Amino acid sequence: MKKLYSFLALSMLALASQAADLKFWIGSTEITPGQTVTYNKVETDDLGGTYEVKMAPSVYVSSSTANTLTITAVCTSGQFVNMCCGGQCKSGTTVVKDNISVAANQKLNLDFDWIEYFDDLSALPVITTDFTATDGSASGSFKLVMDPATSSLTLIETGDAVSYGPEGISYFASAPSQLSLYSITGAQVLSTRVDGQGTISTHSLRPGLYIYSLRGAAKLTGKIYVK
User: Fold this and answer.
1) CB 115, CB 168: distance < 8 Å
2) Which of 104, 180, 186, 213 is least surrounded, with the fewest CB atoms within 10 Å of its CB?
3) DSSP code, position 125
4) Please, which residues have CB within 8 angstroms of residue 120's CB and are 6 or more apart in sequence?
């Protein structure tokens, strides 16, 4: 009998040692289990009086072993969110993706975003989503707060970027770059050298849609709406 108990104990220890380590990431930054992360990079597109507003943080999941996961995103603030990993997009306040295969120690992009349409950009909502990944034994989770009204990031996604916030145009440039801003008629209204992270005041600009260009280590072009 003692031999049987010893065998069972060793078997349980072996199973425990093989349990997968599940992790969430934003970009190349690992998220501490249970952490709350704030993200504020927002994309707006003027559709002629109506604005498409999109927030698309690069959320990844990884496993220390080849695995099949169930990934759940619950938007506790009530908005519809989208998740497209595994080849089929699902939307809702609660999105569950079953049987998602991940290779050992390889990050899988969840293709997660939030898109809505507004006539007024002055009162965009805060979107709070709880993420969970499980394989039936191991699990990982974190809370994502997407706040388009804030101008600072709790966690900055790696990579050059330009966005608009209450204090002006925020940028991150990994090397010395030229940041230019154009009106929708093509007139240049701003041009400055930037490097690292910072904010440029837009107090002298009229509210409206502008096109930005960032040229340096990265070459970015996009649209921002100045309020």
Assistant:
1) no
2) 186
3) P
4) none
Give the residue among 181, 182, 161 at the shortest CA–CA distance from 172: 161
Instruction: Provide the Cα torsion 132, 136, 137, 140; round to 10°.
Output: -10
56-89 tens-digit pLDDT: 999 999 999 999 999 999 999 999 999 999 888 8
Q: What is the pTM of this model?
A: 0.61
Considering only CA atoms, which of 125, 139, 118, 123 is closest in space to residue 44?
118
Phi, psi angles (nearest 5°) of residue 141: -155, 160
Element holding 71 (H helix, E strand):
strand 67-75
Compute the half-sphere exposure of residue 8: CA atoms within 13 Å on the CB side of its CA. Answer: 5
- For 87, which DSSP code? G
User: Looking at the DSSP assignment, which residues form a beta bridge with residue 91?
Assistant: 82
Min mean pLDDT across 31-45, 104-118, 151-165, 206-220 is at 151-165
Closest CA to 164 of 121, 114, 117: 121
For residue 8, the one-letter residue type is L
Rounded to the nearest 5°, which phi and psi values hold at 154? -70, -35
Do residues 32 and 71 touch, judged by C-beta distance below 8 A? Answer: no
Distance of CA 184 to the CA centre of its chain: 28
The DSSP symbol for 81 reads E
